[in-house]
Automatic annotation (TrEMBL), chain A:
Residues 444-453 have a biased composition (Basic and acidic residues). Residues 444-473 are annotated as: Disordered. Its EC number is 5.2.1.8. InterPro entries: FKBP4/5/8-like, PPIase_dom_sf, PPIase_FKBP_dom, TPR-like_helical_dom_sf, TPR_rpt. Signal peptide: none annotated. Keywords: Chaperone, Isomerase, Repeat, Rotamase, TPR repeat. Residues 70-158, 185-271 form the PPIase FKBP-type domain. Transmembrane segments: none annotated. It catalyses: [protein]-peptidylproline (omega=180) = [protein]-peptidylproline (omega=0). GO terms for molecular function: peptidyl-prolyl cis-trans isomerase activity. The gene is LOC113095393. This is peptidylprolyl isomerase. It holds the Pfam family FKBP_C.
From TrEMBL, chain B:
It holds the Pfam family Kinetochor_Ybp2. One of its GO terms (cellular component) is cytoplasm. This is Glomulin. GO terms for molecular function: ubiquitin-protein transferase inhibitor activity.
Length: 473, 592
């Protein structure tokens, strides 16, 4: 991935290869003003052609492969002031610099020039202060109104991962506006095109509520991406099966099991839902009841991922609320308890057992002897092969309700598993001890040989011993 | 006596095979051994321990003696200190690392504030030796050790002045330096892996433990520390500590720019990633950002190509966190971070879209809280300065939207007055040649003016409490009427005037007359009362309680003073109001 060693070679060969101006060092070592060099050889890459950013390509990259907006790009660079003073270099740090291009994370000149580069390209760039740090400078390294010169190599780039597990990757075709994104519960109006293996299977204008895209047959990944998409943005979303139509596939669209999908999404408009901090407790409680119903509806339909979103909203709203008066307090607690209990069940179905345990624990903070929570935690632990802990949970279920038959049979299963486990251990260890014994015997034999050959050493220690015991008496 | 006991138990144990020592043996060995050491017989204990025949015994039970040995070594009184050192060294070589670790950490934990530095001094090297002996399975033990060490070190008082840091009386500087030495080999181990084409995974246990250590160091002690710049203090151990922590972070594969933008670029969390807040506490990241942008620490390993607006956006998260606290050290850091982030941005350049971000709403709210409620005068002044700086950085449209938002949400007459003064400055700027814009002239200005020139509670409004706001509003109005000629009407004020007269000036006039009459009457009655009561000497007019504590009674003199100053205030308002009424009248005359 990080071709540091590679880079050295490239820079090395380049020096020999190119003719007149090879690197920053060369530009600064000649007596020419760098600005003049760029004026004569540089290409203006600014959109409005004001020559604020000029570049000289020193080594061409792979034809046709340019980063898209939002891509995670990986570069090596060196930056200098016009007087030749180096103010920053990723090469000195021996670590490439990685960022999302085209999103205003870096100085303007960089967003412009990187988008013009091909993979593997090396270029020199001169940028005017308006495209860099303007009159403010960047203390303590860059003075006010400084024109900067960079040498940049574009090492690699890839789409932006929108989820922690990398299941949704985005590449932006047209940048949207503002810093304003839809949130959970917002209503979005978008144009979607869905592709599967090069086949367009869905193309339509659609409106849905974020967190409920299932209602209009839009897969989870598109729904989850919405919070990161801006108004007017057009982007490609690469979804892995978990975020697409999953194992079941989708008959209507003729999509088989575990298919990867590609969506092109244009977010035309949206209306934001109120944020948690914009709602008072009464509103939250009212909404929570509705959201709970929605969650249950998804759960019954087997859409566990969507059910999780709904129940999680209740937790987010109410977790930090304490409520005024007993009635409100009870209402909050009741809703939180149900939300966690249902989350536990959803995660059990999704095979996210640690999440199940986590949510059951939350329930038990509110109600330490909750039968369902104990039972579900037992199930999760059993499935995680934590037999004795599962056993304890099920036994506690019986303590709470001695008529719980299911718990009884689970206990039997736990005990059987524990027994099996023991047997297996025994087998393994039996062999192991046997092997150890053999090993020890071997070592013992070797040792004896050694001792016989090193008697003199032993004698010294022998002398020491009586001496010590005298001290001791 | 104890020595005999020790010899007895050791001799008995020599006969026991397969390390099958009984709990009684452990007990006896420990009590006898401890007594021997405490009585100064460490030389003899040493000779028993190093005896090859006792190797098994020492390996199993020896670590029990750590406690007594460490205590003696800490006291430094014993004549046989070198024997005790030798015992410690021997135990470190022979006993099982796991038990040693537990023993050493126990000693570390037991240290009270006075002896932390000594204990760290004595035990760091042994701890390191033990951990290194553990080989590949040390990660969780390293984590445990680092967490114990840091919690102890964090208990030490932080030096405030330059002299205090140089003197290092409580030893924090010393301990921090020692900690760096301590983690070095573990960092090296991970560093090798990171350099070697990322052989180390993000979830490598040792890496995670080091990450936790760095994060914890950032939140405590570093967030508490006010670093001195090199001009003030050339050699600062705390600055070195901070620098080194950032270097460690970067060498274990945590990119500093990624850490900075963590909260802004947060990815969608999926179930199973609970650790985010645990691994990257926001408070630690706030400290990191302060080190980078205020103290300019580790500038060489931080890329100088980030856009100032992006940096500001990231730092808003941390400013918000720091300013939401009440501790003065946090507020100070929050203000400094906000100031430095703003300075990097050009004047009039922040776009209006930014105000859509939650932090651009909550930071000013917190700033207002500091300006109005913070007990510390310098912080209040500073926050006002930073508040103005933030206004200066917005572009025209953003300023407009910001003012509007502040007028609606600040609920503080002083702040509102300040905003109104800013509005006046903006209008003044816009009326100058070539500065014309859509926001502080013409149709957009009127809705803003309506927010300024309003009187939501009508004539009953408490004029004294709203004085700042009322005075600034009247000043603004007077300015507009004088500056913007009726035939030009660039601001639109002249078309709006009849509405303002009805909704603002008239109720204000009524309120003013009412208040004035009321206070003048009150003043008169108090004065009369005073004449009567001066004969009775004692007379309290009213009592004031603050926090259940009764303030001294107000004497009639004090009351007269208060009432008098209120009446003066009304006169002040009236003078401006009258001036405005005159201007309006002269303009209206030619029409009528």
């Amino acid at each position: 991935m990080r071709g540091t060693s590679n880079k050295r070679e490239i820079l090395g060969t380049r020096l020999c290869m190119s003719g007149e101006m090879s690197s920053l060092e060369d530009i600064f070592s000649t007596n020419q003003c760098p600005a003049d060099v760029f004026a004569s050889q540089g290409i203006d890459v600014t959109p409005n052609g004001d020559r604020g950013v000029c570049k000289i390509v020193k080594q061409h990259g792979v034809e046709g492969e340019k980063p898209m907006i939002g891509d995670r790009v990986c570069v090596h660079y060196t930056g200098r002031l016009l007087n030749g003073k180096k103010f920053d270099s990723s090469l000195d740090r021996k670590e490439p610099f990685v960022f999302n291009v085209g999103k205003g994370q870096v100085i303007k000149a960089w967003d412009i020039v990187i988008c013009s580069m091909q993979k593997g390209e090396v270029c020199l760039m001169l940028c005017k202060p308006e495209y860099a740090y303007s009159s403010a400078g960047s203390p303590p390294k860059v003075p006010p109104n400084a024109t900067l010169v960079f040498e940049i190599e574009l090492l690699s780039f890839r789409g932006e991962e929108l989820t922690e597990d990398g299941g949704v990757v985005r590449r932006i075709k047209v940048k949207g506006e503002g810093y304003y994104n839809p949130n959970e519960g917002a209503t979005v109006h978008a144009h979607l095109e869905g592709w599967c293996g090069g086949r367009l299977f869905d193309s339509r204008d659609v409106s849905f509520v974020v967190g409920e895209s299932e209602d209009v047959d839009v897969p989870l990944g598109v729904d989850r991406a919405m919070e990161k998409i801006q108004k007017g943005e057009c982007c490609l979303l690469y979804l892995n099966p978990k975020y697409g139509y999953g194992k079941e596939g989708k008959k209507e669209y003729d999509i088989g099991s575990n298919a990867e999908l590609l969506y092109e999404v244009t977010l035309k408009d949206f209306e934001k839902a109120k944020e948690s901090w914009e709602m008072d407790l009464k509103e939250k409680l009212e909404h929570a009841v509705l959201v709970k119903q929605k969650g249950t509806q998804y759960f019954k339909a087997g859409r566990y991922n969507f059910a999780v979103i709904q129940y999680q909203r209740i937790v987010n709203w109410l977790e930090m609320e304490c409520g005024a008066g007993k009635e409100q307090q009870q209402a909050i607690q009741a809703l939180l308890l149900v939300a966690h209990l249902n989350l536990a069940l959803c995660f059990l179905r999704l095979r996210e057992y640690s999440q199940t345990v986590e949510n059951c624990n939350k329930v038990m903070e509110l109600d330490p002897v909750n039968e369902k929570a104990l039972y579900r935690r037992g199930e999760a632990r059993l499935l995680r092969n934590e037999f004795s802990m599962a056993l304890m949970d099920f036994k506690q279920v019986l303590q709470v309700n001695s008529f719980n038959r299911a718990a009884r049979s689970q206990i039997a299963i736990c005990q059987r598993k524990i027994r099996e486990h023991h047997e297996r251990d025994k087998k393994i260890y039996a062999n192991m001890f046997q092997r150890f014994a053999e090993h020890d015997a071997k070592v013992g034999r070797l040792k004896r040989k050694k001792e016989e050959s090193g008697i003199s050493d032993q004698n010294k220690q022998g002398l020491k011993r009586p001496c010590l015991s005298q001290d001791g008496s | 006596m104890a020595l005999e006991q020790l010899c007895d138990v050791v001799q008995r144990c020599q006969a026991i095979k397969d390390e099958g020592f009984s709990p009684e043996d452990y007990d006896l060995f420990f009590t006898a051994g401890r007594t021997c050491i405490e009585q100064g017989n460490s030389a003899q204990v040493l000779s028993i321990l190093v005896d090859e025949t006792n190797k098994n015994i020492v390996r199993c039970m020896g670590w029990n003696l750590l406690g007594p040995i460490v205590q003696i070594l800490l006291k430094k009184e014993d004549r046989n200190l070198h024997h005790c050192h030798a015992i410690l060294t021997h135990l470190l070589e022979v006993c099982s690392p796991k038990e040693l670790l537990v023993g050493l950490l126990e000693q570390m934990e037991e240290a009270d504030t006075g002896s932390i530095t000594e204990t760290v001094n004595l035990l760091l090297k042994p701890l390191q030796t033990v951990l290194l002996r553990m080989g590949m399975k040390k990660a969780s033990s390293v984590g445990m050790a680092l967490s114990t060490l840091l919690s102890q070190v964090a208990r030490l008082p932080v030096p405030v002045t330059k002299e205090e840091e140089e003197e290092d009386a409580c030893g924090l500087c010393h301990c921090c330096t020692a900690l760096l030495q301590f983690v070095k080999p573990f960092v090296e181990e991970i560093k090798e892996g990171v350099k070697d084409n990322n052989r180390i995974s993000k979830d490598n246990e040792l890496r995670v433990e080091l990450l936790k250590f760095c994060m914890k160091s950032l939140s405590n002690p570093l967030l508490e520390v006010q670093l001195k710049d090199p001009d003030t203090l050339l050699k600062s151990p705390l600055r070195d500590f901070a620098t080194e922590i950032l270097i460690i972070l970067s060498s274990i594969g945590e990119s500093l720019p990624d850490l900075l933008s963590r909260n802004v670029l947060k990815r969608r969390e999926v179930p199973g990633f609970l650790e985010e807040e645990v691994r990257y506490p926001k408070e630690s990241l706030a400290c990191l950002s302060h080190l980078l942008f205020v103290d300019h620490i580790a500038v060489d390993i931080f890329p100088a190509v980030l856009s100032p607006i992006f940096v500001l956006q990231c730092n808003m998260e941390y400013t918000d966190l720091l300013l939401s606290r009440t501790e003065e050290s946090r507020l100070q850091k929050g203000l400094a971070l906000y100031e430095k982030s703003l300075i990097r941005v050009e004047d009039n350049s922040l776009p209006v879209d930014l105000l859509e971000l939650k932090t651009f709403f909550s930071v000013p709210q917190n700033l207002v809280k500091v300006m109005t409620l913070c007990p510390d005068q310098t912080l209040r002044t500073k926050s006002l300065k930073v508040f103005q700086l933030s206004i200066d950085k917005f572009n025209t449209e953003a300023k407009y939207k910001f003012f509007k938002g502040m007028l609606k949400t600040s609920h503080h007459a002083g702040v509102e007055g300040y905003i109104i003064k800013n509005i006046k400055n903006q209008i003044d700027f816009s009326l100058k040649p070539c500065n014309g814009n859509d926001w502080f002239l013409g149709k957009h200005l009127l809705p803003l003016l309506r927010l300024v020139l309003c009187f939501p509670h009508g004539p009953e409004t408490d004029l004294l409490q709203n004085l700042d706001r009322i005075m600034e509003s009247l000043n603004l109005l007077r300015y507009l009427l004088i500056r913007d000629k009726e035939w030009e009407n660039e601001t639109g004020i002249w078309t709006e005037l009849y509405k303002i007269e009805d909704s603002y000036l008239k109720p204000l006039r009524t309120g003013l007359n009412m208040s004035k009459a009321h206070y003048e009457a009150e003043l008169k009655s108090v004065k009369e009362n005073k004449k009567i009561s001066s004969k009775d000497t004692k007379a309290s007019v009213c009592t004031v309680t603050v926090d259940n504590e009764k303030l001294p009674n107000m004497t009639p003199e004090m009351q007269i003073q208060v009432l008098q100053s209120a009446v003066f205030t009304f006169d002040l308002i009236e003078s401006v109001l009258t001036r405005i009424e005159e201007i309006i009248e002269t303009k209206e005359r030619p029409l009528s």
